[in-house]
Amino acid sequence: MVRPEADIELPPIFCPLEPAIHPRAQEIERQADAWIKESGMCATDEEYRWVTATHSVNFYARFAPGAADERLLATALWVYWGFAFDDARCDSGPLSDRPGEFAALAGRVQRAVESPTARDAGERFVPPLRRIVGRFRELGTPVQVRRFAQAHRAWLAGVQWQIGNEARGTVPDLDDYLAMRLLASGGEPTFAMLEIADGAEVPARELESPAVRALTEMAILVAALDNDRHSVRKELSRGQTGQNIYSVLMRHHGLALPQALSAAGALRDRVLLRFLRLAPRVAAGAGAELRAYIRDLGHGIRGNAEWGLRVPRYLSLGRAPDPFAADSSLRWAERPGDPRAAPPLTPAVSWWWDAELG
């Protein structure tokens, strides 16, 4: 039974970035579905239906609309794997409140990313992950694969932080939540794959500059807060509301849910506006590879929002996935919820507004 509080009205999303999608996304999605079915990462038919209902090719086809087909397939397979692992081992699985046990598993999983000869027959998610990263090694440069591995480790660390909060029954304050969400959302590896998808290695002096790091983190946080919005109805319907931006604002700022929805949207819009102001300034002095990377950060923000408004993972409240919603059903806000250019009073992210960044 759906809980009555799940019947909430969500305001439209502000996102003036232009949409884009890979022209052969549907064909590549069929290839991905066949791979998943044979991969062994889904223990039941129900798991397979929910994993494929993430339409992760459609998701990543919006991040990297110009990728070669085999590169889009490889990177989208990791997204499918990430959703499956998250559902079974992170959010609601048996380890979702056992940080010590999850840490041991995370170490085994991470070794499958870092070692091409890793074997772990006792964990069903390891062999398919090793094969996916094997594709990355064939398609990408050693630097690109290493950057992905480091981002993957950061994601697992963030999930462990989140699971530790669950084990203690702790709802983090806003600053801790934003810092944790930057990691636990999976945005680090998702955006790190852009270089592999595009086949362009950004020089380290550019990618690791403070301004580009700020843009990357802004893109991650906007997408993460959008995902909190996309999933709030489903989480309310299932009573899974321990850690999201709304529970944080309700617990620590004394807001009711409607006010928390508004406040979270305003914070998200301030970050997006800063991204929109800073990105063209950084791109103006960048090389071709960095310009492509910054462009696809924007694609990722817009694409994640579009995908999340349509995908059965978020729209389905029952036990079976609903159909994929049509693009024509989407509504967008005309103005940001908060147009201020000043940084929010949250130390974890306020440095993105430093004047020396641009």
Secondary structure elements and pairings:
Blueprint: E1 13-14, H1 25-39, H2 45-52, H3 56-63, H4 69-91, H5 99-114, H6 126-139, H7 142-168, H8 174-184, H9 187-192, H10 194-198, H11 204-207, H12 210-238, H13 245-253, H14 257-284, H15 288-310, H16 312-315, E2 332-333, H17 347-350
Parallel strand pairs: 1-2
Helix pairs in contact: 1-3, 1-4, 2-4, 3-4, 3-15, 4-6, 5-6, 5-7, 7-8, 12-14, 12-15, 13-14, 14-15
Provide structural commentary.
- The protein has about 350 residues and is an all-alpha fold.
- The protein has one domain (about 20-355): Farnesyl Diphosphate Synthase (Orthogonal Bundle).
- Helix content is about 65%, strand content about 0%.
- The protein has 17 helices and 2 strands.
- The protein has a two-stranded parallel ribbon.
- Helix 3 (about 55-65) crosses helix 4 (about 70-90) and helix 12 (about 210-240) runs antiparallel to helix 14 (about 255-285).
- The longest helix has 29 residues, at about 210-240.
- The radius of gyration is 19 Å and the shape is globular.
- The mean pLDDT is about 90.
- GO terms for molecular function: metal ion binding; terpene synthase activity.
- Keywords: Lyase, Magnesium, Metal-binding.
- It is an enzyme of class 4 (lyase).
- Belongs to the terpene synthase family.
- It holds the Pfam family Terpene_syn_C_2.
